[in-house]
């Protein structure tokens, strides 16, 4: 089963307001989502998100999210190949499902299903 590519990257930040200004300058656009717990930008077909304090996953570095049509099938496929589920698929609002897993070296990768 193929993916739809990396379209979402979430960055953990310590100061949401400061990071928002830097990313707005970098991307040349204002955020499409702007709250105390998440700031998101749409730029050239990609979604760039800022998560204060690493968010619920306790992120310590950016996580790239591969968009997929069937998140459970893809999780099964990558775990059968040797990945370990870090965060099972769950709804983050509006029917959008996300999950994270680690590769054999411990790198965190994300899956997203709209």
TrEMBL record:
SUPFAM superfamilies: Glyoxalase/Bleomycin resistance protein/Dihydroxybiphenyl dioxygenase
Pfam families: Glyoxalase
InterPro entries in alphabetical order: Anthracycline_SecMetBiosynth (IPR052164), Glyas_Bleomycin-R_OHBP_Dase (IPR029068), Glyas_Fos-R_dOase_dom (IPR004360), VOC_core (IPR037523)
PROSITE patterns assigned: VOC
Highest taxon of the lineage: Bacteria
Domain VOC residue range list: 5-114
Protein name in UniProt: Glyoxalase
Lineage of the organism: Bacteria, Bacillati, Actinomycetota, Actinomycetes, Streptosporangiales
